[in-house]
Amino acid sequence: LKVHSSAQRIHQEHQRAPALSQAPSPTHFAMASQVSFQVTLLSGAEGNVTADASQKVLEVRSKILEALNLDASRGEAFSLFLDSAAGEEVKDDWSIAEISGRSILAVVQSEPEWCTNKRFSKSYVHGRRCGMEETSEDVDLKIYAGGTFSYSNKHHEHDAECGYAFDSSVTATGQWKLLWDASDKSEVLQLTGESTTHVRRTISRGCYSDPGGSGDEDDEDDEDDEDDEDGEADQDESVGRNCDRTTTQAFSKSFLKAELMKPEKGRHQKGGW
């Protein structure tokens, strides 16, 4: 019986031996925790970053700068985006495991020459009935070094026949930064801050009060609606027949680079800067 028990024990140990020899070593675990992802600049420069899967994006920002040959000592600010159709922004609290094997686009907030200390403006005017009716719009955007901006949009229209006049102006200041639009493959200038809107509307007599009921008012109103489609402050029923009011609110607006760089079409045609 003793011999039988010893042989059985030896047989059991022999069966366990292969399982013990196949167990992964600590070195294997360390290698598996290292993941890589690719980073690219708008200029086309690219590099690969390898980090621990458990680390956060914030912890490897210096490695990203190093991979892109950027000077980490300058403390350049940059935003990261998934280079995909959605173009989702990569947050600092994401784990590296979440972006393993992905392609990441880095947009450096280095105040690019194309927009820094530049002014973008456009204007439009449409006169009708020898100037009896008119619609105009003037937009002005100034981008300053240091990340600040000023913006204004002035809209005017009048109809001398019915004593109608409408003016609205929007002025805003705040901060700007560059984002990335993956669908258009373009830089986006994003503005955030505070705006003040002033609206003034006057009607001195009944609009198109034709005793004969000519019915022209619907046609002319439709024409005005087409002209106003790009206006910053739309007219609505809450404005009232005569009003003069000022409101302050949060401001958020964005422009594609291609939109801002579009040549001016001329004051009598819509579009362009």
Task: Summarize the structure in words.
With 273 residues, the chain is of the alpha+beta class. The chain is 18% helix and 41% strand. A 6-stranded antiparallel β-sheet has the order 6-7-8-9-10-11. It is elongated, with a radius of gyration of 32 Å. It starts with a helix and ends in a 13-residue tail after the last helix.
Q: What proportion strand?
A: 35-45%
Stretches with pLDDT under 50, minimum 5 residues? 1-8, 17-21, 26-31, 207-231
Portion in helices: 10-25%
> Total strand count, please?
11
Give the strand order, joined by hyphens, for the main sheet: 6-7-8-9-10-11
Global structural class: alpha+beta
Please describe the biggest sheet, giving its number of strands, its sense, and whether it closes into a barrel.
6 strands, antiparallel
| Mean pLDDT reading | 75
